[in-house]
Amino acid sequence: MNAVAPAAALPQERLKLTEIFLSLQGEANAVGWPTVFVRLTGCPLRCQYCDTAYAFHGGQWWDIDAILAEVARHGVRHVCVTGGEPLSQKRCLSLLKKLCDAGYDVSLETSGALDIAEVDPRVSRVVDLKTPGSKEMARNRLENLPLLTARDQVKFVLCGRADYEWARGMLAEHRLAERCDVLFSPSKTELDPRDLADWIVEDRLPVRFQMQLHKLLWNDEPGR
């Protein structure tokens, strides 16, 4: 009788990562919490104000189990999966599920250009709606908006008054504040934060003004 050959080991699920690091969450509704950031490599968009262009290329392959082990090593509850555009790697969905299964408070930062329907419902999805000033407004996937729930957030990065008026129109047209938290942020180099704050107060918009805490603390220092 011929011996039965052992079954081949299943290949590990892998993702290409730019970095994993511990810092403070600098934006969205978890702002201020110690958070492990898992930054995936690659993005199909080229927003003119992008501050993480170093994540477009390069990176290293990680087994998902190794990612979970590295996250656990830092010993905090909050995990943010970001990019680049994390959903451009299909196995991101598996990572998000496993992080939730492990008991973490998980958020996903996504450009809003890709389908969010299959993201684990336990994840807080922070969906960026691209303004005219971003130069990538045409990439917005508006089909995502009806999928948003109270766990999610919509973020607008505004480059000037025209962007503000466009975002105000989107807020009303899609009744976004009735679905989830809405965040308005000034582009770092193109809009005075005080102007944006004044406009929000004047119009009494049901949105949260935010600035990037990590940029105020550490500017653009990598890994912070």
From TrEMBL:
<feature type="domain" description="Radical SAM core">
    <location>
        <begin position="30"/>
        <end position="224"/>
    </location>
</feature>
<protein>
    <recommendedName>
        <fullName>7-carboxy-7-deazaguanine synthase</fullName>
        <ecNumber>4.3.99.3</ecNumber>
    </recommendedName>
</protein>
<comment type="similarity">
    <text>Belongs to the radical SAM superfamily. 7-carboxy-7-deazaguanine synthase family.</text>
</comment>
<feature type="binding site">
    <location>
        <begin position="49"/>
        <end position="51"/>
    </location>
    <ligand>
        <name>S-adenosyl-L-methionine</name>
    </ligand>
</feature>
<dbReference type="InterPro" id="IPR027621">
    <property type="entry name" value="rSAM_QueE_gams"/>
</dbReference>
<keyword id="KW-0479">Metal-binding</keyword>
<keyword id="KW-0408">Iron</keyword>
<feature type="binding site">
    <location>
        <position position="82"/>
    </location>
    <ligand>
        <name>substrate</name>
    </ligand>
</feature>
<comment type="subunit">
    <text>Homodimer.</text>
</comment>
<dbReference type="Pfam" id="PF04055">
    <property type="entry name" value="Radical_SAM"/>
</dbReference>
<feature type="binding site">
    <location>
        <position position="47"/>
    </location>
    <ligand>
        <name>[4Fe-4S] cluster</name>
    </ligand>
</feature>
<comment type="function">
    <text>Catalyzes the complex heterocyclic radical-mediated conversion of 6-carboxy-5,6,7,8-tetrahydropterin (CPH4) to 7-carboxy-7-deazaguanine (CDG), a step common to the biosynthetic pathways of all 7-deazapurine-containing compounds.</text>
</comment>
<dbReference type="InterPro" id="IPR024924">
    <property type="entry name" value="7-CO-7-deazaguanine_synth-like"/>
</dbReference>
<feature type="binding site">
    <location>
        <position position="84"/>
    </location>
    <ligand>
        <name>S-adenosyl-L-methionine</name>
    </ligand>
</feature>
<feature type="binding site">
    <location>
        <position position="43"/>
    </location>
    <ligand>
        <name>[4Fe-4S] cluster</name>
    </ligand>
</feature>
<feature type="binding site">
    <location>
        <begin position="24"/>
        <end position="26"/>
    </location>
    <ligand>
        <name>substrate</name>
    </ligand>
</feature>
<comment type="pathway">
    <text>Purine metabolism; 7-cyano-7-deazaguanine biosynthesis.</text>
</comment>
<keyword id="KW-0671">Queuosine biosynthesis</keyword>
<keyword id="KW-0456">Lyase</keyword>
<keyword id="KW-0949">S-adenosyl-L-methionine</keyword>
<keyword id="KW-0460">Magnesium</keyword>
<feature type="binding site">
    <location>
        <position position="52"/>
    </location>
    <ligand>
        <name>Mg(2+)</name>
    </ligand>
</feature>
<dbReference type="InterPro" id="IPR013785">
    <property type="entry name" value="Aldolase_TIM"/>
</dbReference>
<keyword id="KW-0004">4Fe-4S</keyword>
<feature type="binding site">
    <location>
        <position position="39"/>
    </location>
    <ligand>
        <name>substrate</name>
    </ligand>
</feature>
<dbReference type="InterPro" id="IPR058240">
    <property type="entry name" value="rSAM_sf"/>
</dbReference>
<feature type="binding site">
    <location>
        <position position="50"/>
    </location>
    <ligand>
        <name>[4Fe-4S] cluster</name>
    </ligand>
</feature>
<dbReference type="GO" id="GO:0016829">
    <property type="term" value="F:lyase activity"/>
</dbReference>
<keyword id="KW-0411">Iron-sulfur</keyword>
<dbReference type="InterPro" id="IPR007197">
    <property type="entry name" value="rSAM"/>
</dbReference>
